[in-house]
Write a structure and sequence with these properties.
Helix content is 8%, strand content 55%. The protein is mainly β.
């Protein structure tokens, strides 16, 4: 039962937000907002000095809110949506653009950086969440300094660094559904003032609440364990060397998919195998005859070095930085082909899907006197980047003829030729009895794509301080990438229609892409603690080889480009007690890359153009009431297809538009329609109250609640009404108790008090048009209690 309706909660959020940004408050000289330092331009700067739209979330906030993954973390930032239903299906969307779920063989359009290392797969994201110092969300193209796969923005994680003072923490948590979390970190000196280390560890295990009625003995659960090692070495006053490494092992039983909608034909067919079949995606049951799993293993190691060389020619305070890194991730899985109790087969990776990357980056940063004596100074940064990446993505599908016969009524209905009821029942019974000896694997489809790429780039940026109040920035990245791909598919089925048009093919190819990504920005501070800025930037992302796909219609996709313009303000008002940052923007995409699931295969295609515009705002307020802090965000984003006359269509539309070609698949005109995964409105509001409990012992409390709103949106590119997600307004609450010195704390959390129903993914069931499966968030309130103990120097 919902405690507060969506409409009422939106009104409450708006009224509170309006009140909290009122400009008629009295002075509050006893408290000031702390300056937030970020590395959004590859150097330490105040958040207020960065001429772009950036949001920052501290690790302390993540600890207090019991946030353990990026999906919860980005809820506090406007116009950002992260989806991670399991290790294979994770994606980030910023301002409506990004690489959506199911993208197994494509670099994300939202870049991922952890401790300065860029990762080419979004599945690495949660490796940066634990022992967190700060998350920065950079919106819009960031190609100048962060690279080609940052066309929509960047998630920039910074984890905690070693200290020469011995210190750390231990944290233990109990959650609903037999969930347990353990986390610990320790910093210590190895050689005083020369070598320090920090070891971080996290382990999680949880029963996901899903029960498989077809197997009657399988409960979905996962175990996740991560270790990070961070060394800081100072051989001299001018040199700093860092070694950063982590490893993660994730083992999951099940995949989270439940039936979201069943036709009567499907329901009656499935009930013969499992009478408990149903299509309520929020009741925590599923019916799948095949065992399923979803695992992940990641490793990363990086060596960073900074050399302070002082003055060099015309440059001052010169620093040379180098970064060499290696990383890999394996993501093996197994799924039921039809997600039903009918034994028609299963598919899994042929060995683990593996992605490996090697990178080298060298940067030179310095400042100098202004050119021609104009202005005060210039900050410079130049660099070069070289990288290699290799991915091997495969899929082995095993089909059982008896099961396909049993599914014949459902498959025929999905193709628009429903069988008479008596004939459908006959096929189902024949499949149940068996028409082939044994119950083994009668047909197989082997599909794979293997891609190797090499990237080289030169980049640079100059920030010219024309006066104490005016700075202009010019940036440019020039690069080239070569991509080699091998794609193949083989099926031993004598009837292609049984395998939905599977084609036997073997294709090899090579692509060469050139990048030219400029940036221009200017900022002006008309008064202390206020900055106005504008910027224009261009982003680029290479094309590639789609797959794995069972047919040859969409083997390759073209590169995409984006042009973004922003106009914003950053301010700290009323003696630094109110911080308001706001940005208005517009973005234009050419050849937007879409990852589409057509009911049988996942492939990547291009849209000629797409566009978005909107506004986003963050605020942080210390009101006159000493016990109260308020922070929040508000975003509005309108994202639409441009010209897209041959877009993917829903299952019940079997016609191809004439302009799409004679052999084109079924299509619909999506020109001017909204893109999916894009809530038009996103908002958050977090009031925090601090109060004494036992003042004589220095023990106090903290109470906070989050109001998190996401507007309605679709969850598939064909804009099928069955994939429509209604707006959600979640309410979270937490209570923390501990001493003022933060030696220990007990934190009670309750998430989703409004019991909102949110679906993360909705897909057409394979070969079963009109039937759907989904992965959802729990719609019941989730409770947890954390105990944290901090040791060492807490100053």
């Amino acid at each position: 039962m919902k405690l507060i309706s969506n409409d009422k909660l939106c009104v409450l959020l708006f009224l509170t937000f309006t009140h909290s940004t009122s400009f008629s408050m009295p002075d509050n000289k006893s408290r000031v907002l702390e300056e937030v330092i970020v590395t959004a331009q590859k150097r330490a700067q105040s958040l207020q000095d960065v001429p772009m739209s950036v949001s920052a979330i501290s690790g302390d906030m993540a600890t207090e809110a019991a946030i353990v993954d990026a999906q919860d973390l980005v809820q506090y930032t406007p116009n950002v949506k992260f989806t991670a239903s399991n290790p294979q299906y994770s994606s980030t969307m910023i301002r409506g653009f990004g690489s959506p779920p199911l993208a197994r063989n494509i670099e994300p359009s939202v870049g991922l950086v952890i401790d300065g290392i860029s990762y080419g797969r979004s599945t690495f994201t949660n490796d940066g969440v634990f022992d967190l110092e700060r998350l920065e969300v950079l919106r819009g193209p960031q190609g100048t300094l962060f690279g080609k796969n940052t066309i929509a923005g960047v998630l920039n994680f910074t984890t905690k660094s070693p200290s020469f003072d011995s210190e750390g923490y231990v944290q233990v948590a109990e959650e609903d559904l037999d969930g347990r979390r353990y986390e610990a970190a320790i910093s210590f000196p190895i050689i005083d003032d020369i070598l320090a280390a920090r070891l971080s560890w996290r382990k999680r295990e949880k029963y996901l609440g899903l029960y498989n009625t077809a197997r009657n003995n399988e409960k979905e659960e996962f175990k996740d364990e991560s270790i990070r090692v961070h060394l800081n070495y100072f051989p001299s006053d001018d040199i700093e060397i860092q070694l950063i490494s982590f490893t993660t092992q994730y083992e999951g039983v099940g995949n989270g998919f439940q039936h979201s909608y069943l036709t009567e034909t499907a329901r009656s067919t499935f009930e013969e195998r499992d009478p408990r079949i149903e299509d309520d995606e929020f009741n925590d049951t599923r019916s799948s005859n095949s065992p399923t799993y979803s695992n992940r293993a990641s490793d990363s190691i990086a060596l960073k070095a900074d050399l302070d060389i002082g003055d060099l020619l015309l440059f001052r305070n010169s620093i040379v930085s180098a970064l060499a890194s290696w990383a890999r991730v394996d993501t093996p899985f197994q799924l039921d082909t039809d997600f039903s109790p009918v034994n028609s087969g299963y598919f899994h990776t042929d060995g683990p899907d593996r992605y490996t990357q090697k990178q080298l980056e060298v940067r030179f940063s310095a400042d100098s006197l202004p050119l021609l004596g104009w202005g005060e100074s210039i900050d410079w940064m130049f660099g070069l980047f070289a990288g290699r990446a290799e991915s091997n993505v495969s899929q082995s599908t095993f089909l059982v003829f008896d099961g396909l016969v049993a599914l014949a009524p459902v498959m025929a209905e999905g193709r628009g030729v429903p069988l008479p009821s008596f004939l459908g029942a006959l096929f189902s019974q024949i499949g149940n009895i068996g028409v082939t000896p044994g119950d083994g694997e009668d047909f197989i489809i082997e599909t794979s794509v293997h891609v190797r790429s090499e990237t080289y780039a030169l980049f640079g940026q100059a920030d010219w301080h024309l006066s104490p109040s005016v700075t202009t920035s010019l940036g440019l990245r020039i690069g080239t990438e070569s991509i080699n791909g091998v794609q193949s598919n083989y099926s031993d089925s004598p009837v292609p229609s049984i395998t939905n048009g599977s084609e036997n093919y073997y294709e090899k190819g090579r692509l060469t892409e050139d990048e030219f990504s400029p940036k221009f920005a200017i900022s002006w501070s008309p008064a202390d603690e206020m900055t106005l800025f504008t910027n224009i930037s261009k982003g680029f992302k290479s094309g590639g080889f789609s797959g794995p796909v069972i047919h040859t219609r969409y083997l390759r996709y073209e590169p995409e480009e984006a042009l973004s313009a922003e106009l914003g303000i950053k301010s700290r008002l009323f003696q630094k007690t109110l911080e308001i940052n706001a940005t208005a923007y517009t973005m234009q995409f050419d050849n937007l890359q879409l990852n589409v699931f057509d009911g049988t295969a996942i492939f990547t295609t291009n849209v000629e153009e797409a566009e978005s515009w909107g506004v986003e705002l963050d605020f942080h307020w210390l009101p006159p009431m000493q016990w109260l802090t308020v922070q929040g965000s508000l975003g509005f984003n309108e994202t639409k297809y441009g010209s897209f006359p041959c877009g993917p269509t829903t299952w019940d539309d079997s016609d191809a538009l004439p302009e799409c070609g004679q052999d084109a698949p079924p299509s619909q005109d999506l020109s001017g329609k909204q893109l999916p995964y894009n809530p038009k409105i996103s908002a958050s509001l977090t009031p925090t109250i601090r109060f004494p409990i036992m003042p004589s012992w220095g023990i106090g409390g903290m109470f906070a609640f989050d109001m998190l709103y996401q507007g309605e949106h679709y969850l598939d590119y064909d804009l099928d009404e069955k994939t429509f997600q209604e707006a959600t307004a979640k309410l979270n609450a937490r209570l923390a108790i501990g001493p003022e010195n933060k030696r220990w704390a007990v934190i009670f959390n309750a998430k989703n008090l409004t019991e909102e129903q949110e679906r993360l993914i909705v897909l057409d069931a394979i070969l079963q048009g009109g039937n759907y499966i989904a992965i959802t968030h729990p719609d019941e309130t989730q409770y947890s209690v954390d105990f944290r103990y901090n040791f060492g120097n807490l100053d």
